[in-house]
Specification:
CATH architecture of chain B: Orthogonal Bundle
Strand order of the largest sheet of chain A: 5-6-7-3-8-9
Number of helices of chain B: 11
Largest sheet of chain B: none
Number of domains of chain A: 2
Helix content of chain B: over 70%
Oligomer: heterodimer
Radius of gyration of chain A: 19 Å
CATH class of chain B: Mainly Alpha
CATH superfamily of the largest domain in chain A: P-loop containing nucleotide triphosphate hydrolases
Strand content of chain B: under 5%
Number of strands of chain B: 0
Order of helices and strands of chain A: EEEHEHEHHHEHEHEEHH
Order of helices and strands of chain B: HHHHHHHHHHH
Shape of chain A: globular
CATH superfamily of chain B: ABC transporter involved in vitamin B12 uptake, BtuC
Radius of gyration of chain B: 19 Å
Strand content of chain A: 15-25%
Helix content of chain A: 25-40%
Number of domains of chain B: 1
Number of helices of chain A: 9
Structural class of chain A: alpha/beta
Number of strands of chain A: 9
CATH topology of the largest domain in chain A: Rossmann fold
Distance between the termini of chain A: 42 Å
Largest sheet of chain A: 6 strands, mixed
Amino acid sequence: MTIMHAIELNNVSVRYEFDVVLEDINLTVEEREIVSIVGPNGSGKSTLLKTIMGLKEPFAGTIAVFGMEPEKARRKGSFGYLSQQSNYDSVFPVHAFDVVAMSRYAQCRIVEKLSRKDRSIIETSLARVGMSELAHRSFGSLSGGQKQRVLIARALALEPKILILDEPATGLDVVSQDSFYELLRQLRDEANLTIIMVSHDIGAVSEIVDRLACINRKIHFHGKPSECAPDEMIAKVFGRNIHVVRHDTNCPTCRGE
Amino acid sequence: MSELFAMDFFRNAFFASILLGALFGILSFFVVTRKMAFLGAGIAHTAFGGVALGVFFGVNPFWTALIFCVISAIAITKLTRLGKLTPDAGIGIFFAFSMALGALLIKLKKAYTFDLQGYLFGNILAVTSCDLLITGAVLLFFLPFIALFIHRILFMTFDVEVAMSSGVRTEYLDTALFAFLAAIIVISMKIVGIILVSALVVLPASFGLVLTKNFRGVIAWGIIFTLCTMCGGLVLSFFMDTPPGATMVVLGTAAYGISLIVNALK
């Protein structure tokens, strides 16, 4: 019997018009794993996330999410997705609670009605990100970091199997970032969540993630952060003009050993 | 006032105002929050081509306009979704093409004299029972559609990608919403003209957004605003002997302006 991976991409290539943005991607993510995708701007990180969820069709290769086609997984509410901040209307006339409730309504069949269970899921999700007290404030009046937390709560309220986070730490201050990463760890351990996130900050994420995938059109490195990405790889992905500051305590190279 | 309601044409106009008030009060919210005000105006102008097609082929222009606008609205959304066109460019092209097509066809059909004044400002005092029935029927379909899907439409409006990734069937909802948009615009064009239609798709929600920051309130205020503007404009036009459509637009814009000033002074 073959083992079922949470996510499996085989030789996936994606293009926008004539530009190939992802080429020959092979990537597997296991259940309860936290994987961070790093790479420079325009390297195809967000496209990779969209491809996994079936929002962007590849022109070659196959994708399976718990053995299903991405579209089917999407309909079942398998993906809790946090998109980049620029993608939503930040003055939309809704309360924070309504934003989180969207996830519960998304899974309604015909009639949109929140059950008692739905309400408790929404409340728990808001509590997890520390936003319970601001639940009935207008979304537009919240600060950037608070908005980000509400959107994370919305992704959690779907009760997904996989959390897909596109630059989740944007707008969060250092304290909130730390508690956010702690929350991710808890979610993996308690709710058996698989987590994929795009991040610019290799240093910060390498402390909490199980594996790193460095991409720049192709996958250049995919492994444990403790294996520490070699300098040549960093140069290949980010170019030579980069000075990477890593504070990865697990990494012998970083400790100068 | 009671003598006004004794007149058939005035009663019909009043009922039409109430029906359109409910339709635009709700529709306007989605048009404004999706930043599609231009699409509203664009479809109203596109209808001209549809009307001319009907005139040219000798069929009821209402139905050709309806079909033409629904198809245009869906085509514009499909093209923009495929990324072939930006929405404003798409609307601009359809809009100009339909107006030109309309002018061309009407010229070719030499015998026909086109009532441009009626087309621009409509004639709410000439509303027939049949118009009322059609408007009522659209409302009868539109209300349950909104009641069943409002939160999913809201999700899609707020953040379409996340809505899709969360399992919302955005493609169906989008198509249905645009079909309603086109249908509501075409039926009301005959009654109130394109100028008022263009105003009605943006003013109610813009007014609501000044007063409250929650969608329920915005929709409720939008309905109240449209009902007051339309019914008030109708009565006012009767006493001032002014064209009803134009009176409503001026009254509505004035009310919106006052709401902005009051809000700024708060």
